[in-house]
């Protein structure tokens, strides 16, 4: 994961390879539906008439076939590529799609409507519109640029969701206060709403990098938790989904002033943590709102 990337931040329950495989399958399925299947190149050279010596033909043909095979292989995997995030049980699926929100929001809405499981290993999928360095200036620049699309023309209600992993240098209160001031400066009608905001500004800090996204329907879509979306309104007796639900609720925060627990606790939470949503503490945001 590097500054300038965009993609999907995926949390899992420890089965990393299975999570990557399912992420590819699901994302490619929805990308094909939204944008059409990836075009593959054909070896048109096979139909070209022979010319020159046999030795030259064979050499040129082999080179062109190798180039075509490489293009085909790259095209098949070009939309999504798993890269290291630097944190346990947390994956980053890089994409070249212009807006990761479009594909992930459609997935979450479908899960909410159908209640059909698509993976036993994925816990949460957060669309990330930009990755930057984990310092206040870069975060302000990225949110300022993205915020022009969402907060400039019409007033919106918002919440700032700040989480960090393996980083104690960045001040949570400073980030929340400065971002709230920035959003208010774009339109005086923008107001903080911690219970049901129109937009959630996601700030996920992992080591020296920061993943940023501005997401709609954050709380109605269960904070983009695929387990909770499918399990919503299920009978309490469906114990099969409870451990995974508890893990992600504890492991990835969804409020302005909520900090995720260490990854080791995410993995151990299946032993019997409560699956209720974490309590909301919002001193910084109330001050900014």
TrEMBL record:
List keywords of the entry alphabetically. Answer: RNA-binding
Q: Name one GO biological process term.
A: tRNA modification
User: One GO MF term, please?
Assistant: RNA binding
- Which InterPro entries does this entry report, sorted A to Z? THUMP_dom, THUMPD1-like
Tell me where on the tree of life, at the top rank, the source sits: Eukaryota
Q: Which Gene3D superfamilies match?
A: THUMP superfamily (3.30.2300.10)
UniProt feature, compositional bias: Polar residues: 278-289
Q: Where is the composition biased (Acidic residues)?
A: 46-57
Q: Where is the THUMP domain?
A: 110-216
Q: Where is this region: Disordered?
A: 38-57, 234-289
- Protein family (similarity comment): Belongs to the THUMPD1 family.
User: Cross-referenced PANTHER family, in alphabetical order?
Assistant: THUMP DOMAIN CONTAINING PROTEIN 1-RELATED (PTHR13452), THUMP DOMAIN-CONTAINING PROTEIN 1 (PTHR13452:SF10)
Its recorded name reads THUMP domain-containing protein
This protein's species is: Anopheles coluzzii (African malaria mosquito)
